[in-house]
């Protein structure tokens, strides 16, 4: 016996109810809806970041705002600078993948300048910047 098909009105009602449940869930998490018009170049940059990082568009936009204006809850700045340059260059010259090198630094408890754990991407970029100085 075939399932009865739904009418357009029933499908719209189901879609509207689902959207309202989703919006309420987002509000309960403290999120607010935001509609913006952006230049195509901005959309291209967001698409590129989505491909590189796998992050969602809202995550990319939120991160960009935090970087541009400072995080709403900034992490404390270390009192003395960390002498990472020699260590990073030494780690870069060791065998293994960038992920392995990042894992070694994280296992030693060494954090980035922002106090976050190392990833393959940020250690590679840090070493590249050090070599270009």
Structure summary:
With 133 residues, the chain is an all-alpha fold.
Notes on the structure:
Among the domains are: 42-73, no CATH class; 85-131. It is elongated, with a radius of gyration of 23 Å. The mean pLDDT is 83. Helix content is 59%, strand content 0%. With 133 residues, the protein is mainly alpha-helical. α5 (98-107) crosses α6. The N and C termini lie far apart (73 Å). 5% of the residues are buried.
SSE inventory with pairings:
Layout: H1 8-28, H2 40-53, H3 57-69, H4 85-93, H5 98-107, H6 120-131
Helix pairs in contact: 4-6, 5-6
Protein name: Recombinase domain-containing protein
Organism: Desulforapulum autotrophicum (strain ATCC 43914 / DSM 3382 / VKM B-1955 / HRM2) (Desulfobacterium autotrophicum)
**Element order, helices and strands?**
HHHHHH
Give the strand content: under 5%
Structural class: mainly alpha
What percentage of residues falls in helices of 4 or more residues? Answer: 55-70%
Give the biggest sheet.
Answer: none
**Count of extended strands:** 0
Indicate the radius of gyration in whole angstroms. 23 Å
Number of helices: 6
Low-confidence stretches: none
**Mean pLDDT across all residues, rounded?**
83
Please give the alpha-carbon distance between the first and last residues: 73 Å
Please tell me what the overall shape is: elongated
Protein name: Recombinase domain-containing protein
